[in-house]
Specification:
The structure is a homodimer of 206-residue chains. With 206 residues, the first copy, chain A, is mainly alpha-helical. Chain A is built from 8 helices and no strands. The longest helix of chain A is centred in the middle third of the chain and has 23 residues. Chain A binds a DNA duplex (19 and 19 nucleotides) through loops.
DNA sequence: ACCTGAACACCGTTCAAGT
DNA sequence: ACCTGAACACCGTTCAAGT
C-alpha cells in the first residue's frame, strides 16, 4: 500500500502531497483526512510535509482552492455549448452544473463549503478563488438583467440568493437529508425546488 | 477547572455527560468536541462514558436530538404571539425564527446540519426529532395553501424548498461566507434574499 | 451494576540531527 | 535546502480489575 522511495530527494513534494490530499479527502472525507497518511502515501516522513505546508489546514486549503477554481470553470462553461438569452434557462443550467459538481465529489464539496479554512485570512489565494466562483454567478445575473428578463435588483443579491439555495440543496442531498434515489432524480427535484425561486427572480410579465 | 467527586457513585451520569457535551460543543464546536473532556468536566474517568453511550457519536447524537426538538418548538411558536393568515408574513416569521435559532448557538446548528450522525440509522429517535422539525414547516405550508395564499404544489416540496434556502442562508452567514456586520443585518438580509422565493411561492394574484 | 487504570493504536506538531 | 527519527501531548476505544 505504502509507496517507498529509494532516492533521497523527491521530485516535487508539494505537488505530490496536494495530489495525495485530494485523493484522500475524496476517499475518507475532510474529517477523516490525515496529514500523516498523505505523507505515507507519498513515501515521505510526516514531518517532511511541514517543510512545504505550515500545517494540516494549509494543505487542505490548497485542495479547497483547486476545488473553487474547478467550480468556477464549470459554472462559466454551463451556458457555452448552447447559448441562449432566456434567463430562466441559463440559471437552471447554472444550478444543474453546480449540483453535478457536488455530486461528482461529495467530500470535496463538503471541504469547500464546510468549516471555513480561512476565517483568519491566512490563505488569501483561497479567498480569491472563492470570489472568482461567486463572480461567475454574478456575471450571469447581470446578463439576465441586461436582457431584461430578471427583476430589478442588485445582481449580487440575486447571485447570493441563488448560491444559497443551490448550495443548501446540494448539501441536503449529499447528506441524505433530502432523499433522492438517483442522480437523475436529484437533478429533477432540483428543478422542482428551484421553480418558485426562478419565478420570483423574473421580471413581472408585461 | 476539572471538577472532582469524592463519592464513588454519580447522581445521573448520562444526563451530566449530555449537559457537558452540549456546553463543550458550544464552546469548541462539533469538531473540537472531545469525549475525554466531557468526562473530565463531569469528574469521571473517560472510560465511564462508555457505560452509557456506545461511543462519541452516540453522545453527540443525543445533543443533536435535543437541538432538533428545541428547533421544532421554536418554529411552532413563531406565529403564536400575533396570529395571522397572511402566508408571506407567516413564512417570513418562520424563516426569522430559524435563523435566530442558528445565530443563538452556531456550533449546535453546525452539529445539527453538518455531517449526518445517523446515516446508518443507529439513532432512530434522532431521525424522529428531525422529522418533527420538518413537520412544523410542512404544517405551515399546508396552512398557507388552505387559506389559498400559496401556489398549488405539494406542501412538502414547498417546505423542503424553504428549508433548503433558510438552512443554506444560516450556514453561509455563520461561516461568514455571507458578510453581515450584525445580527440585525443578518435578519434584514434574510428578508431581502427570501423575497424572490416568497413571491414565487405565492399564488398568482387574481 | 457501575466505575477506574492501564493499554493500544492512532493523531498534529516540534525539533535536533542527519545528508 | 530538504528530510528523518524521536518525542510530546493529545485522541477514541477496549478490557481486566476493582467496589
Amino acid at each position: 500500500m505504502t509507496r517507498r522511495r529509494s532516492t533521497y530527494h523527491h521530485g516535487d513534494l508539494p505537488r505530490a502531497l496536494r495530489a495525495a490530499a485530494r485523493r484522500l479527502v475524496a476517499e475518507h472525507g475532510p474529517e477523516g483526512f490525515t496529514l500523516r497518511e498523505a505523507a505515507r502515501d507519498v513515501g515521505v516522513s510526516h514531518a517532511a510535509a511541514y517543510r512545504h505546508f505550515a500545517d494540516k489546514r494549509a494543505l487542505l486549503a490548497a485542495v479547497c482552492e483547486d476545488g473553487y477554481r474547478a467550480l468556477a470553470a464549470t459554472l462559466r462553461a454551463a451556458n457555452r455549448r448552447r447559448p441562449t438569452d432566456d434567463a430562466a434557462t441559463r440559471i437552471r443550467r447554472l444550478a444543474a452544473a453546480f449540483v453535478r459538481f457536488a455530486l461528482d465529489d461529495p467530500p470535496r464539496f463538503h471541504l469547500m463549503f464546510g468549516p471555513r479554512l480561512n476565517l483568519d485570512g491566512r490563505f488569501p489565494s483561497l479567498d480569491a478563488a472563492t470570489d472568482e466562483t461567486l463572480a461567475a454567478v454574478v456575471a450571469e445575473m447581470e446578463h439576465g438583467m441586461a436582457t431584461g428578463r430578471l427583476r430589478a435588483a442588485r445582481p449580487v443579491d440575486l447571485a447570493i440568493g441563488f448560491w444559497t439555495m443551490v448550495q443548501g440543496y446540494a448539501d441536503m442531498v449529499l447528506r441524505r437529508r433530502i432523499k433522492v434515489r438517483s442522480r437523475t432524480m436529484a437533478m429533477a427535484y432540483l428543478e422542482r425546488l428551484l421553480a418558485p425561486l426562478l419565478d420570483g427572480m423574473q421580471a413581472p410579465r408585461r
